[in-house]
Specification:
single chain, 73 residues, mainly beta, 4-stranded parallel β-sheet
Length: 73
């Protein structure tokens, strides 16, 4: 899966299987990603202020030039 310039602001993406996805220039402001499978994901130039990543699987996930201000892990 490849997402570019997508707006996920405020959505509930909790528990979704997103393993291996690539996010480029996407916005996740206030988004819930709790318990999501984010293993092996790649994040480039994304904004995720106040996003929630509690209990998400982030094994080998990589974040580059992302704004993760006030996120919950």
């Amino acid at each position: 899966m490849h997402f570019e310039q997508c707006d996920f602001d405020g959505l509930d993406l909790a528990g979704l299987p997103l393993r291996g996805a690539q996010f480029i220039g996407c916005s996740f402001l206030g988004t819930s990603l709790d318990k999501a499978d984010l293993g092996g994901t790649r994040w480039l130039d994304c904004r995720a202020g106040q996003a929630q990543f509690r209990l998400a699987d982030l094994t080998e996930a990589r974040f580059h030039r992302c704004d993760l201000n006030n996120t919950s892990w």
